[in-house]
Each structure stands twice: as C-alpha cells, then as structure tokens.
Amino acid sequence: MTRKVGIIGVGMTDFGEFWEKSYRDLIREAGVEAINDAKIEGEKIDALYVGSMSPGILIGQEHIGALVADTAGLHGIEATRVESACASGGVALRGAWMSVKAGVNDLVIAGGVEKMTDSSVGAATIALGGAADQEWEVFHGATFPALYALMARRHMLEYGTTEEQMAMVAVKNHHNGSLNPHAQFPFEVTLEQVMKSSPVADPLKLLDCSPITDGAAVVILASEEKAKELGVEPIWITGSGQSNDFLALHDRASLSETKAAVEAAKKAYKMAGVKPSDIEFAEVHDCFTIAEIMAIEALGFCKKGEGGKFTQDGETSLTGSKPVNTSGGLKSKGHPVGATGIAQAIEAVLQLRGKAGKRQIKDAKVGLTHNVGGSGASCTVHIFERDAK
Ligand code: COA
After folding, report:
1. Span 323-339, mean pLDDT?
2. Domains contained in the chain, number
3. Which residues line ligand 1 at a C-beta cut-off of 6 Å?
4. What's the gap in Å between 303 CA and the centre of ligand 1?
5. Residue 69: enclosing H or E segment and its boundaries?
6. pTM strictly above 0.85
7. Is the pLDDT score of 13 beyond 80?
8. Active site residue 335
9. Average of pLDDT values for 273-288?
10. 254 and 336 inside one domain
C-alpha cells in the first residue's frame, strides 16, 4: 500500500432547489468545473464512480453509471453507480481511491448527485426512508427525523445533552454557511430562532434538520506518478475507512453512539498514522444537529457524552480548537444525499489549498471527512493531508 493517491481537481454546483436544472445538468456542471480545475481536458479518464442514493424513486432514473459517463462523453470506460444511502458519495470516493491505490487505474472521477426537490417533501421522505429498515422501522411510521429524535432523547437521558446545545450546532453551521457561496441556506440563525422553530420530531425542530436539496459534486483522483506527469499538486488522501452497523436502531448496542463511525475512523486514523488530536478541521455528517454531536464523539474529538458541552464551549466553531463543518455542513450548505460525501471532500481540499475564502482555517495541513448512511448503518471516514510523506 505504498502508492500515494490524491485529489487534483474539484467542482460543485450551488446546492438548493433548481427547477430549471435536470439531474444531468447538475452532474455535468460539477464535472466540467472539476476537469477545468484539474486542467485535464483531453486526458484519458480510466474510470468513474458516482454516488446517488434514490434517483429511481426521486426522478425515475436508474443505470446512473452509464448515464453520467454518457453525459460526460466518456465511452469505453468503467462507470459505476455506488449506493450507500446518504453515504453514497463517500463510498464512491473510497471506491475511486481504492482503484487508484490498487494500481488498476491512474486517473479517476468520483462524483455524487441527487435531484430531490422535483418530488414533494413527502415523496422525498419516503425515498429517504429506504435507508432505514422498511419492515421494522418505516412501516411503523418512523421517518429519519423520528429515528434521529430517538437518538437525541437517549443522548439527553444518558449524558444530559440539552436542546440548546443541539441548537448551537445549527447556529454555528448557519454562520459558516453564510460564508459559503454554494450554500442552500446561507443565512445566520439565532439560538432563539432554532429553539422556536416548528417541531418536526420531538426534540428536533425545523432548524435542527438538514434540508431537501438538489446538487452535484465531483473530484478527480490521480496517482502520484500521474499527478507528476500532469504537473499538478494533489491534496493527498492518506486514510480511508468504512464500516457498518445493524440496519435498524433497535438492534444496536447503543442508541447514543454510532459504532460504524467509531470503527471507520479507527481504520482511517491507523492508515494515515494520525490521531484525533492531529486533525485540524473536519466535515461531519450533521443531517440533524444531534448527529454532529455524536460524530465528534465517535471521531474522538471529545469524550463520549461531551459533544454537547464541546459545542457549547465553542471548540467546533471557526475559531475554536477543532473547527467542524466549516462549509456550513449539511444543515446550512444543504444535503443532496448522493453528493454530500463528495462535497465534504471538496471542502477539505479547499481548506488544505488555502482557498476556502472567508471561512478559511489558518494554515490547515490535516483534515477529515465523515459521511454517514441512514441512521448510522454505514459510514466512511477519509483523512486528507497537504504535505503527505
Ligand atoms: N433548514 C432551514 N430552513 C428550512 C429547512 C431546513 N432544514 N427546511 C425547510 N426550510 C425552510 C424553507 O426554505 C421554507 O422557508 P420559506 O417558508 O421562507 O420558504 C420553510 O422552511 C418551510 O419549508 P418546507 O419545504 O415546506 O419544509 P417542510 O416542513 O416540508 O420540510 C423538513 C422540512 C425538515 C421536514 C425537511 O427538510 C426534511 O425532511 N429534512 C430532513 C431530510 C432528511 O431526513 N435527510 C436525510 C438525513 S439521514
């Protein structure tokens, strides 16, 4: 495992509600930007991996690998759709990374795309519900907000986490999102606004939830040799981990811990040879505010049960000791489910290139992304470094 692999190009659409843009338009726009960023127009691309969760239900389109390759004018290459619910993008990134790491390919596209707002919120909720256990959870009325509400209640009971501490995640992420030109909801919110927003699934309120979003994101991966040949400087992926857990919440050992994330992080840290304390910033899967609190605990940024306090103390803010979701996260930037894992990687690349604009972390060298499927039954963690050995 000595071959170095890095990201040499990134591109993403704005995230939001785009009636005037099709699924194809979105992935094309992000792909063209990534290819221009990497300056590889005309180069032979070996393969394409694209994360997309529910295009069949949301827009009636399947066979996504072939569709995206066709849209990109890439014929005669391997083109694969990857599905792991909301972690589809992160798992696509890992698939692309593995194919270069293994020496099978040298120049690979990893993308993610979802078109969610052409359906009603009800239809999108049903599509998202496919990531839970249909027979034991969804059939009985559980939606994703409801499942995360159960986890929030358990965390509150075991550790004294408060609704205010969860609301602070939203306040922080909306602040960061207000500095991100791609964000769906680039406005600030106050603690009071979050606390007074409409109940969705008690204790979660509207402003504790990530939205329904259209969007696409693309990165280009290259081997060290290929990057040298192209004369480009990659941001290296030095660690990649993936793990799973029981699909249904009731089967898990704990409702207040995402075990798949703990295990994926352990693998990624080991591969990269780094510790949680070495990570300077992270993009984590804040599909609901409680999810960010559980994520920072699973990643070892603070002790189990102390995620609420860590947030309240400002440690995860842009100027804190461990900035989390500098992009605005899923909460403010938006959550086009299949694209999310790739968009997280883009934020890591921008931060490490020193190109994150007003939300830039000073002299960032090591960052991490954490992308969760469903209520935590799958998870990928990636570690990115500017100056890898
Ligand atoms: N954050 C901030 N504002 C939001 C928002 C969010 N998550 N979702 C909607 N809004 C805003 C809308 O822009 C709209 O504002 P307006 O009245 O000024 O135009 C208003 O709130 C109502 O929007 P609407 O689309 O009617 O909301 P809704 O009640 O139908 O849906 C949720 C809101 C939270 C139920 C929906 O976004 C949702 O299901 N989110 C969770 C998605 C999810 O489960 N993802 C997978 C995670 S694993």
Report:
1. 98
2. 2
3. 86, 121, 125, 128, 144-145, 185, 200, 206-207, 209-212, 287, 335
4. 31
5. helix 64-71
6. yes
7. yes
8. yes
9. 98
10. yes
